[in-house]
Amino acid sequence: TAAPIVLDVNGIEVIYNHVILVLKGVSLQVPEGGIVALLGGNGAGKTTTLRAVSNLLRGERGEVTKGSIELRGERIENLSPAQLVQRGVVQVMEGRHCFAHLTIEENLLTGAYTRSSKGEIAASLEKVYTYFPRLKTRRTSQAAYTSGGEQQMCAIGRALMAQPSLVLLDEPSMGLAPQIVEEVFEIVKDLNARENVTFLLAEQNTSMALRYANYGYIMENGRVVMDGPARELADNEDVKEFYLGMG
Ligand code: ATP
């Protein structure tokens, strides 16, 4: 039996600055409990797709002009980012975006801004530390002085503090050494398996993403040009020629 669809993006168009058509009818589905990879080169539209889902386009002067986005059957195009967080949808932005002057622990705690129970927040913090032991050792360090890998872990940990059911993860491998990328993906896999967190992740590192995802969509120039189970994509000759070895 197929898992229910958590996220259903149906034919969306996105325009920046009222004139620049960047997404030209993108459709994708994310099943409950899945790890879905959104692949493609620089400028293909991956970040824009994630931002459309988490309603973070407005700050970029972008808007969804066609199509629909449904979360478990509910239309969400008009919900604010905060309302989406309350429904369990959290985006981890590209470039990690920790608050440089806050400590790792303070950064993590900012992720709990929609929650009020101090005891539950403390329990979540401990849970984040069990997945990211590195963050526990670095808890009192200012984020600015931690490594790129630790900052990426901090960004994911902060998202977890909102108790998400769906995490939109933008380019987690960016700027990280291969070994650290692998460490981050292993944690994503654990969170998916043990905490039942569903992931939609944008990645230029196609080979790494296809090793961890169940399903992938390949974007080019604002469109999905190919999709399929991750294993089939990894074995596909065109994918091998054009995308593997990219990241
Ligand atoms: P990257 O890996 O570089 O983030 P991407 O696949 O995520 O690539 P997007 O960032 O979604 O691609 O960009 C898609 C297209 O939209 C690009 O041509 C980009 O120049 C354009 N674009 C992105 N943000 C804006 C903006 N705020 N205003 C105008 N154009 C934008």
What's the helix and strand layout?
Layout: E1 5-16, E2 20-31, E3 35-39, H1 46-53, E4 62-71, E5 74-75, H2 81-86, E6 89-92, H3 104-110, H4 118-131, H5 133-137, H6 148-160, E7 166-170, H7 178-194, E8 198-203, H8 206-212, E9 215-220, E10 223-229, H9 230-235, H10 237-242
Parallel strand pairs: 3-8, 3-9, 6-7, 7-8
Antiparallel strand pairs: 1-2, 1-4, 4-5, 9-10
Bound molecules: adenosine-5'-triphosphate.
InterPro entries: AAA+_ATPase, ABC_transporter-like_ATP-bd, BCAA_Transport_ATP-bd_LivF, P-loop_NTPase
Family: Belongs to the ABC transporter superfamily.
Organism: Ramlibacter rhizophilus
How would you explain this protein's 3D organization?
This protein has a six-stranded mixed β-sheet with strand order 6-7-8-3-9-10, sandwiched between helices. Strands 2-1-4-5 form a four-stranded antiparallel β-sheet, covered by helices on one side. It has helices at 46-53, 81-86, 104-110, 118-131, 133-137, 148-160, 178-194, 206-212, 230-235, 237-242; strands spanning 5-16, 20-31, 35-39, 62-71, 74-75, 89-92, 166-170, 198-203, 215-220, 223-229. The radius of gyration is 17 Å and the shape is globular. The protein contains ten helices and ten strands. Helix 3 (104-110) packs parallel to helix 6 (148-160). The chain binds adenosine-5'-triphosphate. Adenosine-5'-triphosphate (ATP) is lined by residues 16-17, 20, 22, 40, 42-48, 60-62, 94, 171, 202, 204. Residues 7-246 form the ABC transporter domain. InterPro entries: AAA+_ATPase (IPR003593), ABC_transporter-like_ATP-bd (IPR003439), BCAA_Transport_ATP-bd_LivF (IPR052156), P-loop_NTPase (IPR027417).
